[in-house]
Amino acid sequence: MKIVVLGGGESGCGAAYLAKKKGLEVFLSDKGAIKDNYKQFLTENEIEFEEENHDEERILNADWIVKSPGIPKKADMITKIHDRDIRLSSEIEFAAEFTDAKIIAITGSNGKTTTTSLIYHILKNDGLNVGLGGNIGYSFAKQVADENHEYYVLEVSSFQLDDIQNFRPYISLLLNLSKDHLDQYNYNYEEYALAKFRIAENQENDNFFIYNKDDEMSKNILEKFEIKAKMIPFSTKEKLTEGGFINGENIQINLKDQFTMKIDELSLLGNHNVANSLAASIAGKILEINNESIRNSLMTFQAVEHRLEMVTEIDGVKYINDSKATNVNATYFALESMKNPTIWIVGGVDKGNDYTEVEDLVKRKVKAIVCLGLDNQKIIDFFKGKKELIYSTSSMEEAVKVSKSLGKSGDTVLLSPCCASFDLFNNYEDRGHQFKEQVLKANGN
């Protein structure tokens, strides 16, 4: 069987390595430049590859093509692959075919990385043999090739789910839905939502689907989307006979037996993280992890980098890095959890954002808006007349300097951009690292 892998990043190199290890004929092609560490990895493992080129004839002669989630589904090469009716899969689909491990897969518009990391922490803390992968950490395919895990906890994006055929997690979680990546889904919110629901499309009645009962779009889709898996809801608004919910000052899970824990004992801050903790606890209960072990994990879990990450305090002003908030809904949760007057750093590549969702929170909680991007006009125009203090900056150094000059003891500076990072940064991680670097510099470190 001839395997072609498109994309020479973490997932592509992992998929090529797995194919090679399984004795399949493999060729990796990247239209851009491949990073040196990945080139070295491919060379050391005798995997044939090309960069800054696509050998169309060779690619279209494949039996099975594995595509990086970063390649747009409307790209010319992808259209040609579909026209030839060649099987096209994401790395998660490809790797899942070579393991019998139980897969716990997490998707949603916001909270995926936090919840994936939290579930991994719960399983690891209980002594289970577990791997972490998908959109987070190391390549799932490479782990399947080299490590014999009994469980995998995978963060899964809609782009990865677009390219599945048989992918069937033991437990799937759909945390929430909000308008994101609509440019890739014909600006159709329902089309994007249905892509997320594909996480459950191959599940059978011996599998589990954990979902958010408070989420409006999920409710709408569930009315027309048949799910065979056992459905278990969570809610922060209503009490449930089965599932996870808030009961007074506690979170409570009713499943087989009962699990309760005080909300103020959770290591994660904010209402959205109460929902994430409920979802993760349900997964723990399905896997028959005992209550004490789940409680201990929820108390000891460390927040994910770039997601409401406390950087430092300077002269009584807290600096929080929420660079992973690349859409308005993610920033809504961040602003909602702010207790002090907030200097909000926002901006980047707009993905069709509608700022009315955060308008009320900005009125109540934000003291000043510091725009950070090559083009800040849309944000300035929207908040003009609603906020007196609006500043435009075009570098992280400038944004942090302006924010520091505005901050008084008791304030919070929050980087929660609402936007993609690609105008000024390599990715949201680069943006978050630069924020932390400039903040520590401002503190004389």
Protein described:
The protein has 445 residues and is of the alpha/beta class. It has 3 domains: 2-89, Rossmann fold; 93-300, Mur-like, catalytic domain (UDP-N-acetylmuramoyl-L-alanine:D-glutamate ligase, 3-Layer(aba) Sandwich); 309-442, Protein-Tyrosine Phosphatase, Chain A (Alpha-Beta Complex). It contains 17 helices and 20 strands. It has helices spanning 10-21, 36-44, 56-59, 76-83, 91-96, 112-125, 140-146, 158-161, 189-197, 216-222, 271-286, 291-300, 328-336, 356-365, 377-383, 396-406, 428-442, and strands at residues 2-6, 25-30, 48-51, 64-67, 87-89, 102-107, 130-134, 151-155, 171-174, 208-212, 230-234, 243-247, 250-255, 257-262, 309-314, 317-321, 342-346, 366-372, 390-393, 412-415. The strands form 4 sheets. A 6-stranded parallel beta sheet has the order 7-8-6-9-10-11. A 6-stranded mixed beta sheet has the order 15-16-20-17-18-19, with helices on both faces. The longest helix is centred in the middle third of the chain and has 16 residues, at 271-286. It comes from Chryseobacterium caseinilyticum. Residues 106-283 form the Mur ligase central domain. Keywords: ATP-binding, Cell cycle, Cell division, Cell shape, Cell wall biogenesis/degradation, Cytoplasm, Ligase, Nucleotide-binding, Peptidoglycan synthesis.
